[in-house]
Amino acid sequence: MVEDFGGTTEMHGSGHWFLEGDPVPTEAGCAAFVLMTELTAPGDLDGTRVPSSYFWITDGDGGPDDEVVGFLNLRHVLNDFLLEEGGHIGYSIRPAARRRGHASAALALAVAAAARLGIDRVLVTCEDDNDASRRTIEANGGVLEDVRNGKRRYWIATA
């Protein structure tokens, strides 16, 4: 999957930047990546991270033959950076699996998960020129607040 992305630049929502180095497509690299996603308790955080839930986006119904096609990170609270640019939810679908509804379905599930956490509305952002993400967010009820630093900022009610 990392290779399909062409590296880590477009792996939004993956949290890979918290690893020591980029994720590598090996068993050890995968294990390090999974461990990084599990470190969300306050004692594990370094001031730049917030408690969050990571999800692997798959192309099926959760069965053993499902293929991982992307990432989603649901942040339980916003720090200053997330309020400006990152938002509550970050996600990315690998290029070979795009335009199949994975992002829209994953975002809808994340909004429902946010509601279960007691979050009344979530902030979701995308690059100003990313029409696919804009359409995905708007299809999930996103209401544009503004554009800051090249990021479109949308709020979605969770109720």
Which segments are poorly predicted (pLDDT under 50) over 5 or more consecutive residues?
none
Q: Helix amount, in percent?
A: 25-40%
The total count of strands amounts to: 6
Provide the CATH architecture.
Answer: 3-Layer(aba) Sandwich
Mean pLDDT level? 82
Q: Summarize the biggest pleated sheet.
A: 3 strands, antiparallel
Strand content: 25-35%
Number of domains: 1
The chain-level structural class is alpha+beta
Widest sheet: strand ordering: 1-2-3
Query: Compute the gyration radius: what is it?
Result: 15 Å
CATH class: Alpha Beta
Q: In sequence order, what are the helices and strands, one letter per element?
A: HHEEHEHEHEE
Task: Report the span from N to C terminus.
Answer: 33 Å
Q: Quote the CATH topology.
A: Aminopeptidase
| CATH homology superfamily name | Gcn5-related N-acetyltransferase (GNAT)
Tally of alpha and pi helices: 5
Query: What coarse outline follows from CA principal-axis ratios?
Result: globular
